[in-house]
Amino acid sequence: ELKVEQNPLFLSMQEGKNYTIYCNYSTTSDRLYWYRQDPGKSLESLFVLLSNGAVKQEGRLMASLDTKARLSTLHITAAVHDLSATYFCAVAPPFLIIQGAQKLVFGQGTRLTINP
Amino acid sequence: DGGITQSPKYLFRKEGQNVTLSCEQNLNHDAMYWYRQDPGQGLRLIYYSQIVNDFQKGDIAEGYSVSREKKESFPLTVTSAQKNPTAFYLCASKGGGPTYEQYFGPGTRLTVT
Prior knowledge:
The complex is a heterodimer of chains A (116) and B (113).
Chain A: E1 4-7, E2 10-14, E3 19-25, E4 32-37, E5 43-49, E6 55-58, E7 61-66, E8 71-76, E9 85-91, E10 105-106, E11 110-115
Parallel strand pairs in A: 2-11
Antiparallel strand pairs in A: 1-3, 3-8, 4-5, 4-9, 6-7, 7-8, 9-10, 9-11
Chain B: E1 4-7, E2 10-13, E3 19-25, E4 31-37, E5 43-51, E6 54-57, E7 64-66, E8 76-78, E9 87-94, E10 102-104, E11 108-112
Parallel strand pairs in B: 2-11
Antiparallel strand pairs in B: 1-3, 3-8, 4-5, 4-9, 5-6, 7-8, 9-10, 9-11
């Protein structure tokens, strides 16, 4: 059974600091997705990582993928309050890509709170 | 505007009643999905469909049913057999292309008392 684990699950930061959220998964995959969810809202796509060594950046967020280590990271640089949200990673291993439907397995989410 | 709509946004039902949640997309996507999210938890897959008139059970299909009569629509029925139906339900769709990214609707919050 595929498992996707995020850590930490809760993170409280000060504005201006840097931090990293980790996403580990238990089986081979070359597709990993990061989503953001605000309280009571839906999921918003942040990054799509499709190969080993992939790195994507958007503003103060940067995501990377190491398929050999089965690890993705989401790095936050000089955090600001607006980045407070829950962040999910999701993995699509090849054996779950069934006739193009592609099932995703989600991590538990990391609830990030950024304090002024 | 292209996107995914879900209705209603909030739904309240008495225990023992079936309820149907609507999901419509105008993105011309073939695959559609239903997820359930409980407070403080990740998403769990209920059902998915890759083409019209075909759908497959996800990880937690018991107590739920779906239909896919049109490409644009993928309604979910929460039956009285679902023991803990109170949750946030999210519909998603996926197009083709290299990313196979799933796009999510705004969600329906179902409360059963």
